[in-house]
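Table S2 (continued). Query chain:
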Amino acid sequence: MGVPSLGCGCKVCTSPDPHDKRLRPSVLVRWNEPESGAERNVVIDTGPDFREQALRIGLKRVDAVFYTHGHADHILGVDDLRPLSFAAAREAGPIPLYAAPETIAILEKVFDYTFSPNATYINRARVELRLLAAHNPIHGLDFISIPVLHGQQQIDGFRFGRAAYVTDASAIPESSFALLEGVEVLVISALRHAPHPSHATVEQALGWAQRIGARQTWFTHVAHDLGHEETNRALPENVKLAYDGLSVPILL
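Corresponding output:
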């Protein structure tokens, strides 16, 4: 729901620490294509705050978007791809949006005016839905799907090079732990300390982080139950809460 949460006056929602102001999670993976040297930008999830996040970093190009699942806090920024997609379409065609079948169905329903074969809105986003595969190569970088559970729903995390992004997980299948072997930078969700039916607790996420053995782990999708400074003091040295604007170098 973002922090501050609407209508809440708790100590985290009223905290003066800028790290306690949290927009809905979205990730930009940026690299230079090995052969051409061209800068490439792939986004994971376009939530309701995507426009604000993109403006903050001066994002001018998106080569592809990957979706973890179809919940509102992960998809509602699709329409904000419009201005970026106009230039992209002239150069290379529609921006590809990769998603599982269930997420594609939600995107088609919510953004009917964009994806319907009968859509007539002339300024609709120039985007194209593509079925997510196990391996999804984008300009020399392979985005590997990491299936996890979000309550009873299967959703997708992603590995790219020696980094991985896994949000909204409440359980990780054994087969997915195998896909995470060798990850050096891990971004994974840790909602709060109290149990939740569809999200991991801090303690559960710590157990996953220890098993995966990444050099650096960042907790994301953090609720207003966790204050940034107080929580970080209790975490291991190589595990910290992510924050808006965080930039992490990774090996691809």
